[in-house]
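#dry-run=false #mode=assembly
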Amino acid sequence: MRVQVKFYADLKNKYARGNRDGIVELVLKENSDIKDVFERLGIDDREIGFIILNEKKVQKDATIADGDLIEIFSFVAGG
Amino acid sequence: MRYGYNGRILRVDLSSMAIAFEEPDENFFRTYLGGKGIGSYYLLRELKRGVEPLSPENELIFAASVITGAPAPAICRYSVVSKSPLTGGYGGSEAGGWWGPELKFGGFDAVIIEGKAEKPIYIFINDGHVEFKDAEHLWGLPVGDAEKAIREELNNKKIRILAIGPGGENLVRYACISNDLIHVNGRSGMGAVMGSKNLKAIAVRGTKSLIMKDPERVKHIAGWFAQNFRKHPLTESLRENGTHAGVERLKVIGLLPTRNFHSGGFEMSGRINCNSLKENYSIEKRGCFGCPMRCKKVIANREYGSPEYETVAAFGSNLEVSNLDVIIKANELCNKYGIDTISTGVSIAFAMECVEEGILHEKDFDGLDVRFGNEASVLKIVEMIVFRKGIGDILAEGVKRASDIIGKNSAKFAMHVKGQEMPLHDPRGKFGFGLGLAVSETGAEHNIMVPHDNAFEMRDSLCLKEIQPLGVFEPLDALDSSAKKVRLYLYLENISSLWNTLGVCNFGPVPRGVLPFGKFVDLVEGITGFETSLWELLKAGERSTVLSRSFNVMEGFRRKDDFIPNRFFEPLEGGLLTGKKIERSDFEEALTTYYRMKGYDDEGRPTLAKLQELDIAWVAEKLIL
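#status=ok
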């Protein structure tokens, strides 16, 4: 199945180089979950603030389906 | 044998130009530790109820801590504490740099300033000796010029100086104090109190070394920090971009305050984020005593620094200004003249909304177009505020008083809690932070819990992992308003309060930084020799909160003063979280839960039992309990 992973803010540069919108397309096997996405893309989950799957906030064990949009936001910390 | 601290407090009476030394015992220092603890202790002990903040009866306290000045990262800060001209309650503000350590090397742990000098002076503390110096020729000078002049006339480049500018001299209610131009005690109007005492600056020189209990242990921990902070995404980001990185991160999650907190998604954030800064300006890193992180940023060949996150949002998105150059210049003006960037920005947002709503007009601003997005007016209004010209005289009073004076329903646009202007964070996306805004003793401020709710949403979140020693290990949605969230807030409040008591920078230890709790406790032990624990230290943090709240209670603050601006009970109008609002019933319930968890009564007053548990039963008579 095919999914889109969209990165925001400084994660864009780190994980989606070459794509202006911060989007990476992935092909994964059936019954994959977000943990698999993280592994595939080598995402350091220490800097992940939250994940939105099809407009809902989810944890990493959420399963994904063909056509899903996974949005990844970094750690928010102001000052 | 004392380790890490001098055991000596300097008391200065400016009315009689007299000095005295106090030497409280070890129990005192172990109980109150420094910063907010020592500051709130003296404020509560010595001020009668109802003192006018800008009168000679107010006290201005500068407090380092038992660990300040030890050669380790993120422990160089000091507090300035006084009765706030903005809120009429406890006022306190922290800053880093080198001034705190130099005070310790100069022989003192804290300085208490009473009275008012007949004419402008500055104080010079020189290895335990104290001199009063004439400052009439410095009065009116911008901060940087005054510091330069003082260094020249004292003929010593190693002196550290904190000073006020014309903002403090003109009693702008949110005037600030700064040292070395870029380290600012920004909030609570401490600069105005200093100005009201005719005190321009305090210069310090100290050559004495601190004696630590276990210098090897301290060195080892400092070494560990230096080795590890670059591997940590938060501290590495601070080194790379400073707090400015927060602009884009908050924008994408819909929490970048826009148009006086109407919206959370400023569409032109790309022009004012840290990438834009790096593309257009030459940035250099600066730091503080003992710390390798160097999270402060300055622009090459310019004084007064590059703006922090709060300032970028305050003069940028919240005013719908997308010109980074204007934001940088506004930051420079505020630092040069000594007024708080947050309060100034939010005061200008108030003015802009008043104009948009027809309550104020161009003629009130001498013909300036003061609507949102009008960058041309921003720098001029900053100057009007500093010098109290025209309507600047009203805006210099802070949004609460300004809206009282202007009337006509302008209070709706005055974004403050207890009289202090909102920081640039929207509680509609982080409920715990919203609770903190309401209960913070200084009024609205952003460091009441660090980091905010958004850091604790993911099961594998770094910050969540780091607070497991507190018994918190469940992720919570940022919008969660349950008792579990109140508990999370409460524990983080104790941590933040501890940092303000020990002069610790949020960016060093967990959960915002890299140094784990265990190593932090180790550090305190290595410096002071106190066989302590995280438990004792967090209790000290709690004690500081209860002391400062008790001061407010003495001054008449009650539950009705623990509020958040009404705008936050209305839906966000733009950004990812459009439509989100706080439910009043959720807020009220959380506030009640907080009081009960804290050991306060239904009016938010500490109970006698809570005072006794914290070993500050003496406070009871101040509260007539």
